[in-house]
# Entry
Amino acid sequence: KILAQKGVVYESKKLYENQVGEWLKRVLQGKKLNIEPKAAAMLVDFLGTDLSKIANELDKLAIILPQGSTITPAIIEENIGFSKDFNVFEFRKAIGERNQLKSYQIADHFAQNPKDNPMVVTTSLVFSFFIQLLKYHGLKDRNPKTVAPILGVSPFFLKDYDVALRNYPMKKVSQIVASLRDIDVKSKGVGANALPQSDLLKEMLVKIFN
# Structure
């Protein structure tokens, strides 16, 4: 499927998360805009890897921002509506740091705003984080230049995985992955009678931190 907007053609096929960052840079160069890595991550976390959705939001920002501007997390929050402090990206980072207070604060925000933070999406993104961490544990060569493409993440965010690697031994990561599969099933209403999102989030964090 091809999407044409304002003389620019976007392929609306889905890309891997690490490919979207490069695509974003190319599109924004044409609009004479830049974007911070964290802001790019927020867009991908909340809009997924569907290029047509991201392109729509970029067009909105191009209208209101002067040429030469850099898109920051604050700009994303102000103009698109994603919280720069309470989002899945920050949730995964807090979990990786074993920052329990911040993790529970973000989980509470998610529980109070379930429409903006669907449990299925949260579980999926946390699950992918630990799957990537499991891969990281299995790598013999941990050169940043080779690790980032293998994990499918931007080199900018590799430091978050380095922190998590120290905080979660490989055996613990395997246990967490198994627990997240179970929570994913529950979030879809299988084997549980519509458990509240707050309960599922608490269960997730208990399984991760214990």
Q: What stands out?
A: The chain is about 65% helix and 5% strand. Strands lie at 2-5, 8-11, 34-35, 70-71. Residues 88-209 form a domain with the Zinc Finger, Delta Prime; domain 3 fold (CATH 1.20.272.10). The two ends are 46 Å apart (CA to CA).
